[in-house]
Specification:
The protein has 2 domains: 214 residues, 3-Layer(aba) Sandwich (Rossmann fold), CATH 3.40.50.980; 88 residues, no CATH class. It is built from 13 helices and 14 strands. The chain has a 5-stranded parallel β-sheet with strand order 4-3-5-6-7. Strands 2-1-11-10 form a 4-stranded mixed β-sheet. This is Acyl-CoA synthetase.
């Protein structure tokens, strides 16, 4: 059984190597990588990081939106036994960064780099605007992959995989993430043929616990939209079977549909209200589905949805009623407290020590 996230990646590459693991959109075109290709890419990135001096117990700071490059470099750092801290580039991270003084950084673009006053080895994804900036020591992500053989994959399950900085610092170990993934996959009946959309940066611990780790454990397909602004269009195009959201993101989707509804008092609005009301009549349920609910599911990109997940607080009554009428009842997964996560971390290390 895999003990770390990169080992879970290698397990998928060994058992389902030709299956599509990841898709991402560039200039309107979807590109694919299967599990074998993905494991090879991560191994090459790990070799490249190693040549830059990244070692076991080092931390990699990533300031980027949800991009496949950020995901691959995350796994490469963990491959070497390091941890990863992810920050949302849309947030003002300058105060936090002054305290962190990161030794290894991946920055999405110039704006992300400008948040850094002190930094060590720094890689970038988008080089626009950097030519005339005093950034001579920057390394392009595209130049990182080394021709050297990938180093041995780290195996310590009690090592921290992610470090999150919010009100307090939260560490999540490989053991915690994989144990949680096994629980979610079993309880939510997640399958290898499911599809999910990674529309938000992995800067929140819920994304790591309930999307990234289950993806590596179950082996479903993870899709990256072209940009945050295109996520709704890309979701409609893909029709994912697994959706992970928060109270706010579900409310945003409900609001986006309600803004398109016909005005109250019109015939079309009456049809909408009629189709969304519960009824014991099989004929009315059938008509309501094809006239109202199915078109709304298509607009939401949820016509194939099988596993709706909710992290954090419950849906508002309005959102719950809207999605409930569509037959969507998100399973709620509460984030653990920092104290509990810290306790889990210490227990995990103690159990690991006893097995030596």
């Amino acid at each position: 059984m895999p003990q770390t996230l990169p080992q879970a990646l290698l397990h998928q590459a060994h058992t389902r190597g030709s299956a599509i693991a990841l898709r991402y959109k560039r200039l309107g075109i979807w590109h694919e990588r299967n599990w074998s290709e993905l494991a090879h890419d991560v191994g090459r990135l790990a070799a490249g990081l190693s040549t830059l001096g990244f070692e076991r117990d080092a931390n990699l700071l990533i300031i980027s939106q949800a991009r496949p490059e950020a995901l691959l470099l995350t796994l490469a750092a963990q491959w070497l036994g390091g941890s990863v801290t992810l920050l949302d580039p849309d947030d003002d991270n300058r105060g936090l960064l002054e305290n962190l003084k990161p030794g290894f950084v991946l920055a999405e673009n110039l704006e992300a780099l400008q948040q850094l006053r002190e930094r060590g080895v720094t890689l970038y994804l988008d080089g626009r605007g950097l030519k005339h900036a005093p950034q001579a020591d920057l390394i392009a992500y595209a130049d990182l992959s080394a021709d050297a053989v990938a180093p041995a994959c780290a195996t310590e399950s009690s090592a921290p995989a992610f470090v999150f900085h919010a009100q307090t610092t939260l560490q999540l170990t490989h053991a915690q993430l994989l144990a949680g993934a096994r629980t979610l996959v079993a309880q939510a009946h997640v399958r290898g043929d499911d599809e999910a959309l990674a529309a938000r940066v992995f800067a929140a611990s819920g994304q790591a616990r309930y999307l990234l780790a289950p993806w590596l454990h179950a082996g479903f397909r993870l899709n990256f939209p072209e940009a945050l602004a295109t996520r709704d269009t890309d979701r409609r195009e893909l029709g994912p079977t697994l959706v992970l959201g928060t109270r706010e993101s579900y409310a945003r989707l409900a609001q986006s549909v309600q803004e398109r509804l016909p005005l109250p008092g019109t015939f079309s609005h009456g049809v909408y209200r009629w189709g969304m009301q519960p009824t014991p009549s099989p004929l009315r349920r059938w008509l309501g589905h094809w006239l109202v609910r199915r078109p709304l599911l298509d607009v939401l990109g949820m016509s194939r949805l099988r596993v709706p997940l909710l992290v954090g607080p419950a849906l508002s009554p309005q959102s719950a009623a809207f999605f409930g009428a569509l037959g969507i009842h998100p399973g709620n997964w509460q984030e653990p407290s920092t104290r509990q996560a810290s306790t889990d971390h210490l227990l995990s290390r103690a159990l690991h020590a006893r097995t030596l």
